[in-house]
Amino acid sequence: MSEDEIAQKAWEQFNKDHDADAFFNNVSSVPYAFGFRLPYYKALVLHRIKKDREAAEQIKIAILHFEGILRNNRCNENCSAKCGNSLYRLGYIINYNIGNIERTKLYSIKGSQYDPLKSDYDSCNAVDLYSFRRYNQYSVQDLINNEITVVCPSEMNDPFDSIYNLYRDFDNLTNICLDKEDIPGYHDMFNYYRVRSFVKGNPPKNIQNILMWSHYTDGHKGFCIKYHLSKHFINNPTENGHLCLKSIRYTNKPIVAKCSTIDDDTAFATKDIRWKYEHEARLISYDVSTESSFLAHPLDNASSIKAIYFGYKCGTKEKETIYNIVKRQYPQCLFKQMTIDTSTNIYELIELPYNN
């Protein structure tokens, strides 16, 4: 048998009898061919028997050899994605447990390259999205700095907005994790995810949605931004992680959080069918550069603000402030005023030109 086959068989036997001594005896005579699976399985066993400092050395070796194989193009894409996920996640947990913060973050960044979360908009050169905002210092700051700020889902007022909130709860992880000492690491792994919600689709329906104005613009006193986001911005590997745009999947099927694993689409891009009227697209950010709940991503040169829609109760001073900020950066931006259609249906909003 090959090195990989012996290592795999020894690992499977360990999973049955939990005999670490037998595992290391079984692999002691394996001819070492500088693969990554043998040190990976050694790291797994050492981790299971609470020897994370020794495990850290083995996972470091496994990752170095894995990266060498990739550099030499000796691994197909599907295989490398699956292996990369397992290697870097184990490396993250082991180094988290021993307090090696630098290597924890390194493995977290590298592991994000193998994250199965992919943009739903790869075929688009750009996409237009709408963001309903309250008027406050944070929304104005985004306009001044030409940024889009993402927020940790746990900061949202609706605990069901991201299933992530329920899955990573300590009590839930206590019920589903075999290795209880790994719970803090798995819990904190989600700290680096942040999101920003947008409305997709074409006007006028999305702009005329009275519920969106009521729920997200402080009772029509806020405004709505029409963003033009480039392909690079919405599917962007960054220095410390990645950005990705997903369409929300609406479902009427039961979803449970008490499960051993959860995929990213379920965790971050799935909502109950009752929210379907929002037509949401979600920008998902994974970034280990900070543990702050809020993180600003600058718009790239190919992205822009195409239009601003003022709520029908938006104040004069607020409108003038927004107009002056945006007009300087985007002279071609359109400005619209939302108002009520009193002659036909008061529950229908209409847009008019905004005259500064």
Structural summary, described in words:
This protein has two domains: 3-112, Serine Threonine Protein Phosphatase 5, Tetratricopeptide repeat (Alpha Horseshoe); 126-353, no CATH class. Strand 7, helix 13 and strand 8 form a beta-alpha-beta unit. With 356 residues, it is α+β, with helices and mostly antiparallel strands. It starts with a helix and ends with a strand. The radius of gyration is 25 Å and the shape is elongated. Helix content is 41%, strand content 23%. It is built from 14 helices and 13 strands. The strands form four sheets. It has a five-stranded mixed sheet with strand order 1-4-11-12-13. Strands 3-9-6-5 form a four-stranded antiparallel sheet.
Question: Secondary-structure map with pairings?
Answer:
Layout (H helix, E strand, L loop, with lengths): L2 H15 L2 H8 L9 H12 L3 H20 L5 H22 L2 H12 L13 E8 L3 H9 L1 E5 L12 H4 L2 H7 L6 H7 L3 E7 L10 H7 L6 E8 H4 E4 L2 E7 L1 E3 L12 H5 L1 E3 L7 E8 L6 E5 L5 E7 L5 H14 L4 E8 L3 E9 L3
Parallel strand pairs: 7-8, 11-12
Antiparallel strand pairs: 1-4, 2-10, 3-9, 4-11, 5-6, 6-9, 12-13
Helix pairs in contact: 1-2, 1-3, 2-3, 3-4, 4-5, 5-6
Structural class: alpha+beta
Q: Biggest sheet, in brief? A: 5 strands, mixed
Over the alpha carbons, how many angstroms does the gyration radius reach?
Answer: 25 Å
Widest β-sheet, arrangement of strands: 1-4-11-12-13
- Our count of domains comes out at 2
Number of helical segments with 4 or more residues: 14
Stretches where pLDDT is under 50 for at least 5 consecutive residues are none
Average pLDDT, to the nearest integer? 87
What is the string of helix and strand elements?
A: HHHHHHEHEHHHEHEHEEEHEEEEHEE
Broad shape: elongated
Helix content: 40-55%
